Amino acid sequence: MEEKKQQTSGAPVLEPLGSAREVEQAIEAILFAAGYPVRFEKLSEVLGVGVKDIKTMVRDLEKKFREDETCHGIQLLIYPASCQLATKEQYAPYIREALGIRRGGNLSASSLEVLAVVAYNQPATRSFIDLVRGVDSSYAVNSLLDKGLIEAAGRLDAPGRPMLYVTTEKFLRVFGINSLDELPATEALSVAEQAEQLNMDKEINADGTVLKKPDEEEDAVEPKEYTEATDPEETDVVFENGAEPLSDGSEEIFAGDLASGSTEE
User: Fold this and answer.
1) What is the band of 11 on the pLDDT scale with cuts at 50, 70, 90?
2) Residue 261: DSSP 8-state
3) 21 and 62: one domain?
4) For range 202-231, the mean pLDDT
5) Alpha helices (H) in the chain, listed in sequence order
6) Is-contact 84 38, C-beta < 8 A?
7) pTM over 0.70
8) 235 versus 16: which is more confidently predicted?
């Protein structure tokens, strides 16, 4: 029964490759023929090697391409779930000229804004994008969906169940990065980070009032009330600068003392 199932399935039976070197060469051949990112799971399924081993071999292959940089016009790009062979950027003009490829249109300013909002805050709903930009973003979102730079990734568990959008592997490829961790740092905080920062900066009392931090306290300090000396001999003290105690018992400080930055005791 098992033999009949294999025969009727129509799937070809591939002979296992004999060595790790042959597996690496097969990976390179598949990626070259594909021309687009191939998932690690697919390579594992076809080559009969575990996903972990496939990833290790791909990293080793990428290292070889990097070490022999002067010998190759192509590079191996590694993404979180896939990998791809691609030409090096510096040869793009020659490739376009040789193959008659017309230069693609650039993204509009609105599309770049939407893409930035999604990239730094994903997953993000369209209403959140509209809130950040202050305008309706329907056209830009649909344009980015058509270009494959963002994609739907489920729905938010909230009234209306709005769609959540995230960036794609094509986004990484177009912008020349391997993961979202390589995005340039930005001073703008996400909404979640802003809320967390707000809670950290303020202490809430039990009744809901906001307590001030020590650095928020007013600098002015109430002067302590002067207590007159109990020793009668101390009432006739004359200070070294020749000034007598004031009627309230406090020492008079002259402008000359303040300018020098010190007062003698």
Assistant:
1) low
2) T
3) yes
4) 45
5) 2-9, 20-34, 40-47, 51-67, 92-99, 109-121, 126-133, 138-147, 169-174, 191-201, 255-260
6) yes
7) no
8) 16
